[in-house]
Write a structure and sequence with these properties.
alpha/beta; 7-stranded parallel sheet
């Protein structure tokens, strides 16, 4: 059977869906990727999989651009005739599900998080909910990554009559993210935030917390790092001039984007994510896998993984003051406390968030859907 994985970014497809694709292939199916070609990660994927170029502007609210994406998907599905399509992210869940339905192809939708459009709760949110309500009747299965998102969709009557299931995020590759109890001995204690540079991820809270800490503590003992994509097309994106200002003021060490984030986590002492809402935060899963405690906001997704004062700390949402207090608390913990947090975090990942758990659920769902199609 031919299984199509459809993503709005070649980078995300390569970094987050490659192991899934390889496992589906090892299970006896042909895997194809439908992604926007970027000349880098799409080329890496082409070495092992057939790839088809997708026309999509992931963050645009222009309906004509979205129609272009829809007709592009319709044309690709009609041409390659996959046996099953797996969609990731909001636009592909919506327009891809319609296209697959029109082509009489079963599909899986993945609600990996609700994103900016659901946090702002404006007219765009109304349209997104309406489109979801119409189109989520079409997939054969819908995967959610946390109970908060599932409850939200249920309360808003967006998934009536749908077959749904919970996944523990995208899982963590435990062979890649190996447990290392302590970072390399460094002169400074390193806080690391891993995120796209968006307001909704809590960037401003992180920066303002750093300012508070610098006024209260000898910061020659602490380094604040930021790793993530800066050139983001999103209305909540951080202006590059602001980023450069923070760098020039000595507030942060900016690490850019990395394909080897495990090395950055290994060299840090604590990973921070004061996000307003998540699906299942990959950076925290990866931090726990390696053995680093975390500080997160008390927001959906984040609160599903961090157990306060067991594997990390939880701060108030949108509160730089509380985030600063929690960061100081983490800095002042004795090393044995952080080591215990590290062990608890790794144990939780092994028990519930191993990538193999996610892939097994995916393979079982693919088999079930394809068998149902044969019997129709």
């Amino acid at each position: 059977m031919k299984i199509a994985i459809v993503a709005n970014s070649s980078w995300a497809a390569y970094n987050f869906r490659l192991n899934l694709a390889q496992s589906i292939s090892e299970d006896g199916h042909e895997v194809v990727f439908i992604i926007p070609f970027d000349g880098v990660y799409s080329e890496k994927l082409k070495k092992n999989f057939k790839c088809y170029n997708l026309s999509i502007d992931a963050k645009s609210l222009n309906p004509f651009k979205d129609l272009t994406t829809f007709f592009n998907l319709l044309a690709i599905y009609s041409k390659i005739k996959p046996s099953l399509v797996c969609h990731f992210t909001i636009k592909l869940n919506i327009y891809g599900s319609i296209a697959a339905k029109l082509c009489k192809i079963p599909s899986i939708a993945n609600i990996t998080g609700l994103g900016t459009i659901f946090i702002t709760n404006g007219f765009s949110t109304f349209i997104a909910k309406l489109l979801y309500k119409i189109t989520l009747k079409f997939p054969s299965k819908i995967f959610f990554q946390n109970n908060s998102d599932l409850d939200y969709f249920s309360q808003k009557n967006l998934i009536r009559g749908c077959e749904i299931a919970l996944l523990p995020g995208s899982g963590v590759d435990l062979t890649k993210f190996k447990f290392k109890k302590n970072p390399v001995k460094k002169e400074k204690f390193i806080f690391l935030m891993i995120s796209r540079l968006l307001k909704d991820k809590g960037i401003y809270e992180y920066i303002n917390a750093i300012k508070i800490i610098k006024n209260e503590r000898p910061t020659e003992l602490i380094e604040f790092q930021l790793l993530g994509e800066s050139n983001v097309k999103n209305k909540s994106a951080i202006n590059l001039s602001e980023l450069n200002l923070w760098i020039n003021q000595g507030l942060i060490t900016y690490l850019g984007l990395s394909d080897a984030v495990q090395n950055n986590i290994f060299e840090s002492h604590c990973v921070v994510l004061p996000s307003y809402r998540e699906g299942m935060p990959r950076s925290i899963l990866e931090a726990f896998a390696i053995g680093r405690p975390a500080i997160v906001s008390n927001a959906p997704g984040c609160q599903d993984i961090v157990d306060h004062e067991k594997n990390g700390l939880i701060c108030k949402v949108k509160s730089a003051e509380d985030l600063a207090r929690k960061m100081i608390k983490m800095f002042e913990f004795p090393e044995e406390t952080r080591v215990k947090f590290a062990e608890n975090g790794r144990n939780k990942i092994e028990a519930y968030f191993d990538e193999k758990i996610v892939i097994t659920k995916y393979l079982e769902s693919i088999k079930e859907i394809l068998n149902n199609e044969k019997n129709i």
